[in-house]
Design brief:
alpha/beta; 8-stranded mixed beta sheet; 395 residues; 20% helix; 10 helices; 7-stranded mixed beta sheet
Length: 395
């Protein structure tokens, strides 16, 4: 075969929503021919550089969601895959209806983040990038080893369309020196992986968590994310054993049915180490735009301050009690969010996640105080999103 026949296909410069989720007459398609980077958010959760929100969430310890679908430069990316939920909750895209994915990024291995990744990966051939706990769960569920990329923070990874990855397997001349089967450079886009932290739970487990609530003190001198692991294993996942039958609501019963089906819903009681991902997208103008996805209210101050490039848009978890440097944050979620946004260089846009209604307490998160706090500087605006609606981020 001639060298010319091995050449990769032309790279699309516009992001658009994945097929099967929204009509093909998307804003991205209308922009064909223009040299504009188009991020869209689709929330099932959601989608960025076309971001589609697939599922907003109201979880602080295993009950919410942070799923988004991102489309840009011909690459389809899922951010978490909690699409199929307990049957009393709304779902906006079924796992079995997903027909296209190039990459799946998992923030951690809990029940409202990881389920569905195995079935989407097996069906589409998508590469899964996640911590080792999540990777081990997916390996046990039958995801091929070549699709599993374990990370722990500090990695920088080039991303390609599935078509390029398939051609690279066929034609050795296309391969780039590096890891086995590495596609050619430059990449369509790339991602920097950073260590992060899971939020902590308010001791009283209120029905509604208000981001204005100020927290002081700690349950013990050792309060940390190990409490989340233990609470998940011995509390949340055994709720049917310790909660009196007369107090079980339809939401509780739906949740119990969901977590008992561990074959269909693959997850772990251990988060495996929270991760956040900063996506770097080259533009036609020659610069780079960055989108950060951090699915929980926590992090290391030094990491957030040092992160480069600073994100233009940040998707941030806003539920629970903030976890700063491994310890309970003294103050409100709104105050932590304001500091976090400042450490990140005041991105122009912030999108909340992990804050919608769910089927067991806490039922939802009141984000008003957090929105006021991060917008106070005048440099950042909170972008409200609707489920199953694609949004262009203008990145």
């Amino acid at each position: 075969m001639s060298r010319g026949a091995e050449s990769p296909p032309a790279r699309p410069h516009h992001a658009r929503i994945a097929s099967g989720v929204a009509p093909e007459t998307t804003p991205a398609r209308a922009m064909q021919g223009k040299q504009t980077m188009h991020f869209g958010v689709y929330s099932l959760g959601q989608e960025v550089v076309m971001l589609y929100r697939l599922s907003r969430a109201g979880l602080t310890s295993g009950k919410g969601a942070t799923a988004f679908r991102l489309r840009t430069r011909g690459v389809t990316i899922f951010l978490d895959t909690w699409l199929d939920k307990p049957d009393v909750m709304s779902s906006y895209l079924a796992v079995d209806d997903v027909t296209e994915a190039d990459y799946i990024f998992i923030s951690h291995a809990h029940l409202d983040h990881l389920p569905g990744a195995d079935r989407i990966a097996i069906k589409t051939g998508a590469i899964v990038i996640a911590n080792c706990e999540a990777i081990n769960c997916l390996r046990d569920a039958g995801v091929p080893e070549e699709q599993l990329f374990p990370v722990q923070g500090g990695e920088r990874i080039p991303l390609f369309t599935s078509e390029i990855r398939i051609k690279t397997k066929e034609y050795e001349s296309m391969r780039n020196p590096g890891f086995p089967g590495a596609p050619p450079m430059p990449a369509e886009l790339s991602v920097h992986v950073w260590p992060s932290l899971h939020c902590l739970m308010p001791q009283d487990h209120p029905e509604v968590i208000d981001t204005a609530t100020v927290y002081t003190g700690a349950a013990s001198p050792y309060s940390c994310t190990l409490d989340i692991t233990s609470g998940m294993k011995y509390g949340l996942l055994r709720i049917g054993d310790w909660l009196p039958a007369e107090k079980l609501t339809p939401g509780h019963r739906s949740f119990i049915r969901y977590v008992e089906d561990r074959k269909r819903n693959v997850f772990s009681h251990c988060d495996g180490g929270q991760l956040m991902f900063n996506f770097l997208v080259p533009t036609a103008a020659g610069d780079t735009k960055a989108l950060l996805w951090s699915a929980h209210l926590g992090g290391y101050e030094a990491v957030l301050r040092a992160m480069q490039p600073k994100p233009d848009t940040a998707i941030l978890g806003i539920a629970g009690r903030a976890n700063l440097d491994g310890r309970p944050f003294v103050g409100s979620a709104a105050e932590f969010a304001s500091r976090q946004v400042g450490w990140l260089g005041n991105p122009a846009q912030v999108i909340w996640c992990l804050h919608d209604e769910t089927c067991i307490p806490p039922y939802k998160i009141d984000t008003d105080a957090a929105t006021v706090a991060v917008e106070k500087s005048g440099k950042t605006k909170v972008l409200p999103l609707k489920h199953a609606e694609m949004v262009s981020l203008g990145l």
